[in-house]
Automatic annotation (TrEMBL):
InterPro entries: HAD-like_sf (IPR036412), HAD_2 (IPR041492), HAD_sf (IPR023214), S-2-haloacid_dehalogenase (IPR051540). It comes from Staphylothermus marinus. It comes from the Archaea. This is HAD family hydrolase. CDD domains: HAD_like (cd01427). Pfam families: HAD_2. Keywords: Hydrolase. GO terms for molecular function: hydrolase activity.
Length: 239
């Protein structure tokens, strides 16, 4: 008799791909989004000072925020700080508009991994329930992606760092996941592509794990089981 009830799937770079998964493109992708935001503000008549490197400016604010708060920063808060540091005479309406634009712009870059829907259908057909875990700094981005891809119906829950107020690398993130699901840790198997934010903290809390090792090519030293194709998850989920 099997003991796993829930399959926890990581969002970015495991079930969904985005340019930021590849370090070669993450800078360009983020920079282009920020430039669009600055252009939008200027078109609306806001005075926005010129930046030599918008991405560096944004990263400095984001990194500073990470250093000074214990949990995961809400992207709306980071964007607010950015606008104020740029000297924008902001209000709640423009913050809402910029945040909504950021969510939509970021969402459109995420695409499901090949064969994801069939994988989800098979997992459910075998009697498992599926939750999605994510460190994306806006819960709404994940909801947007799932709704537009038509895959929301396969997930019982989106468990985000924004919702729980913890970094995904914090083992308490996974203890809260287990507590929320009202199950024992061994009844959850977590699948993720990052050792620091997925595999190690999940294992500390007693969850089973499957390492999606596309980054490291499943080295001998990597945690086992390690898979190179997402569909290989099914090898560890008996009917």
């Amino acid at each position: 008799m099997r003991d796993v009830d829930y399959v926890s799937l990581d969002f970015a770079c495991t079930t969904f791909w985005e340019p930021g998964c590849d370090p070669k493109y993450s800078f360009r992708y983020a920079r282009d989004t920020l430039l669009k935001i600055l252009d939008m503000l200027r078109e609306k008549g806001y005075s926005v000072r010129e930046l030599d490197d918008p991405y560096k400016f944004y990263r400095e604010i984001l990194d500073s925020t990470y250093r000074t708060i214990p949990g995961e920063p809400w992207i709306r808060y980071v964007l607010l700080k950015m606008l104020l540091k740029l000297g924008v005479d902001t209000d709640e309406y423009i913050i809402d508009e910029i945040s909504d634009f950021y969510v939509k712009e970021r969402s459109r870059h995420f695409i499901p991994q090949p064969g994801l829907e069939m994988l989800l259908k098979t997992i459910i057909a075998r009697g498992y329930r599926i939750v999605l875990t994510t460190a994306i700094t806006s819960h709404d981005i994940v909801k947007n992606v799932l709704e537009h891809s038509g895959l929301m119906k396969y997930f019982k829950l989106i468990f985000s760092t924004q919702m729980v107020g913890l970094k995904k690398s914090d083992p308490k993130f996974y203890s809260q996941l287990v507590e929320t699901l009202c199950v024992e840790p061994y009844m959850v198997i977590h699948v993720g592509d990052d050792l620091v934010t997925d595999i190690e903290p999940a294992r500390i809390n007693g969850l089973k794990t499957i390492y999606y090792g596309w980054r490291t090519k499943c080295r001998a030293s990597d945690p086992q089981p390690c898979i190179l194709e997402l569909r290989e998850v099914l090898n560890y989920l008996p009917p």
